[in-house]
């Protein structure tokens, strides 16, 4: 935003004070002269002139009022007209026209020239000349008989007019600076008002899109809630809108393109609603809409569908051919809402439900969502407590070699010893742990605990035993992962070859360059790398040769559906053959029946694990299997 000129309020005040002081001095001087004149004529017994002089006093008072209100030009014009009329009246009833009266006209125009515009001053000059002409003409025609202090002649008209015009012109030149100063004051006042209005606008609007910001949206929502309390039957709704995968645009194409997309999205949103509705940018790629009124919930859904259609247009950014979708959460007014934040919160909750369903969807808030949101909050709180107090246990599921049917390794699996719920499976809390980042310290616990337990078993039970541990997406992106692995191996004295780390296809494919770099550095420690759930993700064969993989783990879905005539048998056999051709071991998960075991054995699968042999067990129960 361009910088605004700095305004000096004290300087403006001083310039206004200077002009007001000049006008005050002239006006009060004239008032003094009038009062002195009234006293003089009354002492001479001339009541009629005293009445005329006294009649001008209200006009002088009105002039002072205009000066006080800083209406300087109006005050000068008003005072000038009063003085011209007064001089002409006094000349008619007594003095006539001579050099003394012409000086009175000149003094009047001097006052006017201080603040009056040029065109107005020319008109006052003409009025002064006409007044002088009236006095001269009236004396020549005998319309009145003045009592002259100094005898005048008709030539006084020309000399008086000349004095008035020349003096007025000279004073005008001298007072141009004063007039310019007054004009500057007006400009500065106008600029100050413009700056204040701009600052007020910027404080309540988003600088990028020009939309109302969060503060203004809250204020309008609060006003709408107040209106709804007076008219509960008047329905309105709040829509919370989040652009799907916007981070991809910022990361891949840059923030400049991302900003253009936000501006285009803001324009599309405004086109989808009425003028009385409010579209706001809350932050980042989050927008909110206040639908001021509607008749039925279907009206709200129609607006949401119109927004989805408008955003999906590939013409939003001509530079890229990409359709944009949004997750839209909707909160419809109900009597229980007392604060704007409550309604916006529920719309936000509904938006997250829409995003969890894959994005590009519209979701109306219901109470179950709020209950689930509270559960998630409680889950996060409990997880933090669990991390601080190490409420974890590591279970181990045996991995059996075929055909020896010998236990050669174990997979470490996490369990949460919840103080109230008992033992919780990873499926109940892993997603929250990932989203909050708590998975990193949790993963450290599993890695450390499993390595120390493996060291004990290798020393007392089986010196060739190895352990397999899952790495989450968040752990894999952790810059300190390599240091942690190295430190634990050093502390336990285990060789890297007895530690197998598993990553899923989805984790591996997020960033191929980063994945290849990290996996090669882990492999350099001697650690074995396994690709977990193979066949259930991207299943792109092109990346397999880029990673230092030692093991493929077939996804359990292929094993569980391996009936006698299932197509999954062909896929499973192909995966086993692929792994062997790349010099990899192949492990099948989820073995539960003799039939599945027989098929995998016939297909030359290397190792298996599943409930057919053993469910995951605490360390103490695994020892008798070793």
Notes on the protein architecture:
The chain has 626 residues and is α/β, with parallel strands linked by helices. Helix content is 58%, strand content 14%. The chain is built from 23 helices and 15 strands. The two termini are 71 Å apart.
Secondary structure: elements and pairs:
Elements: H1 9-43, H2 47-55, H3 57-68, H4 72-95, H5 99-115, H6 118-141, H7 156-203, H8 214-230, E1 235-243, H9 246-253, H10 255-271, E2 278-283, E3 286-294, H11 297-311, E4 326-332, H12 340-356, E5 362-364, H13 367-389, E6 392-401, E7 406-418, E8 422-424, H14 430-436, H15 439-460, E9 466-470, H16 473-476, H17 481-492, E10 499-504, H18 505-508, H19 512-524, E11 528-534, E12 551-554, H20 556-560, H21 567-581, E13 585-588, H22 594-602, E14 607-608, E15 617-618, H23 619-622
Parallel strand pairs: 4-5, 7-9, 9-10, 10-11, 11-12, 12-13, 13-14
Antiparallel strand pairs: 1-3, 1-4, 2-3, 6-7, 6-14, 6-15, 7-8
